[in-house]
Amino acid sequence: MQFKETDLADAVVIELEPKQDQRGFLARTFCKKEFARYGLQTEIAQANLSFNTKKGTLRGMHFQEHPFAEAKLVQCLQGSVYDVIIDLRPDSKTHRHWLAVELEAESGQILYVPEGFAHGFQTLQDHSAVYYLMFEFFAPEYARGVRWDDPAFGIKWPLSDPVISEKDRQWPDYEG
After folding, report:
1. What are phi and psi of 166, to 5 degrees?
2. Cβ-based neighbour number of residue 74 at 10 Å
3. Of 24, 97, 122, 148, which one is least surrounded by beta carbons within 10 A?
4. Rounded Cα–Cα distance for residues 51 and 3 (Å)
5. Do the Cβ atoms of 120 and 59 come closer than 8 Å?
6. What is the number of alpha carbons within 13 Å of residue 45 lying toward its C-beta?
7. How far apart are CA 52 and CA 174, in angstroms?
8. Are the C-beta atoms of 118 and 36 separated by less than 8 Å?
9. What is the pLDDT of residues 80-108, one digit of tens each?
10. Is position 119 annotated as part of the catalytic site?
11. Is the pTM of this model over 0.90?
């Protein structure tokens, strides 16, 4: 694995180093020792899979508040997604900045989302699947979100008129 810093403090893109032969390839996607060496979370609490039937589906922008703030690893297993994170940490030098990474099943690229970041994505193909490794358990009473189109961030989504849940449409404007 290669760990690539991003423009957002503590967010990392992880590129796989596949070992290929006539059968295909094998690549490590997580190693506790390597993650610890880079100062990343290492204790996985749960794993989630999001399957999305329609191109343009938008999920986000989600986070959990302290004391259940969550870091996560995000990887597209099928199709492709426009994955977006926002730094919501008030003391961060990149507070209120966002980053988008196109995750494709073929590349296997993984995005490490630190605690204190909102996360969401928009599918770029029908039948896209996103796999998450979560470093904190889901705590519904601490689950929060900000609107995907909140002017405080000015996120530029690739597809207009998204397929989005009513809950995600109604997150409040960010006031931090």
Report:
1. -60, -40
2. 23
3. 24
4. 26
5. yes
6. 12
7. 27
8. no
9. 999 999 999 999 999 999 999 999 999 99
10. no
11. yes
The residue to which tokens 């928009």 are assigned: 122
Contacts of 117 (CB under 8 A, 6+ apart): 8, 11, 63, 85, 86, 87, 88, 89
**Domains defined along the chain, listed by start:** 2-19+27-169 (2.60.120.10)
Which pair of tokens denotes residue 101?
């990474």
Other C-beta atoms lying within 10 Å of the C-beta of residue 68? 17
132 is catalytic: yes
Nearest to 51 by CA among 123, 156, 1: 123
Question: Of 107, 109, 158, 135, which is closest to residue 39 (Cα–Cα)?
Answer: 135
- Identify the residue whose tokens are 């994505």: 121
Q: How many CB atoms lie within 10 A of CB 107?
A: 14
- Considering 62, 82, 112, 119, which one is annotated as catalytic? 62
Catalytically annotated residue among 82, 112, 119, 132: 132
Give residue 123's pLDDT band: very low, low, confident or very high (50, 70, 90).
very high
